[in-house]
Amino acid sequence: MSEEVLGEKKRLILVITSPLSGRIPILVDDILEPTKITDGIEIRWYPVIRGGGTEDIACYLMELAKGLVLPTVTGILSGFIHEKFKGIPDLKLEIEGLNVHLENKEHIQRILTEKLKQS
Length: 119
Hints:
Layout: E1 10-18, E2 35-38, E3 41-45, E4 56-64, H1 70-85, E5 92-95, E6 98-100, H2 105-118
Antiparallel strand pairs: 1-4, 1-5, 2-3, 3-4, 5-6
Helix pairs in contact: 1-2
């Protein structure tokens, strides 16, 4: 098989931080229900408290259905993330604990691929 397919349902946690209040984009349509990005890919708000201090923190959970083609999934997600966060200064993103360069779509896709292969 030339392309890897997700053999089971997967989840990825995104943590976004900003030192400036109100700078983090809202990624979901509803706090209680998941938002569909495309068939088999949803994102939901993930109520996690981290640290404290003066930074704004938002956590989200990406849910991926079984049977999706890995390069397709990482391409869609990296495009979604890059589009939502590009040009917003001082934002930091972690995917499953790894820092991600938001201005580089290929770096986002590489991190997503690495994390999905590990899980």
